[in-house]
Amino acid sequence: MSDAPRELVLPTGASHVVFRLGDEPLRIFDRLDDSVGRVIQHAVVGGVRARYYVRDVSRPVGSVGAELQPGAAQLLFGATAAELADRHTPLFDLWGRAAEQVRERLLEAGRPERQLDVFESLLAERLPKPRALHPAIAHALERFNAESEIAEVVRETGYSHRRFIALFREAVGLTPKVYCRVLRFRSALDRISDGALVELALDAGYADQAHLSHEFRELAGISPRRYREAAPRFASHVPLRP
User: Fold this and answer.
1) Which residues neighbour 192 within 8 Å (Cβ) at sequence distance 6 or greater?
2) What is the pTM assigned to this prediction?
3) Can you tell me the distance from the alpha carbon of 41 to that of 63, in angstroms, rounded to the nearest whole number?
4) Domains of the chain, each with CATH number or no CATH
5) Where are any strands of DSSP class E within the chain?
6) Which residues contact 65 (CB under 8 A, 6 or more apart)?
7) What is the pLDDT of residues 32-60, one digit of tens each?
8) Burial of 27 (0-12, 13-18, 19+ CB in 10 A)
9) Which helix (H) or strand (E) holds 185?
10) Measured between alpha carbons, how far is 169 from 70 in angstroms, rounded to an integer?
């Protein structure tokens, strides 16, 4: 049993699909003070999120999964990223019996290396050919990573603001404003182990330390100082010890 029975999972700006290969299904909690939570099946699609959630990690469970690029949800699941955003969806609801068959094949594969090979092949089989991300969205994702202004990027695409937001949400699951907010938060996580918080805030693009602290509480549910004290091994997975 883990010394941290629950784990705080922070937003990354991406969605994922995971197959849990042990007996324990996924149990998640929507709030830090939620002591009951809810159980989801062994095969799950985690939609892109703008806030944290908490998951039960009291028992080790092997799993195979992948972080998904924008646009992959529609191709793999027949649902837009916006439809899957901010929630966990049992893969059975999207693939039906095929979800159980994939999990069975992964269990039969045995070794982790073989499981990854099988998983990659199964995902590739479900992707249509040819496939491509909408050019306007591909352009925006590249520009947003360079910290460009949203209004400027929208003008560059040639689309109206309203139409661009609709296209972006379908592919990414979040509005451009919220997506850029999560990117800035991730930038802060990359720098958080070094220096004073006020300098971190300015380097990551926040107005001041108070702004940084507010965003942490909104997106991560904890303060920057508590995050530092937790010293997570992986930036977006924070152990919650009793």
Assistant:
1) 200, 224, 227, 228
2) 0.88
3) 13
4) 6-126 (no CATH), 135-229 (1.10.10.60)
5) 6-9, 15-20, 26-29, 38-40, 43-46, 53-56, 63-68, 88-90, 237-240
6) 16, 17, 18, 19, 119
7) 999 899 999 999 999 999 999 999 999 88
8) middle
9) helix 176-191
10) 10
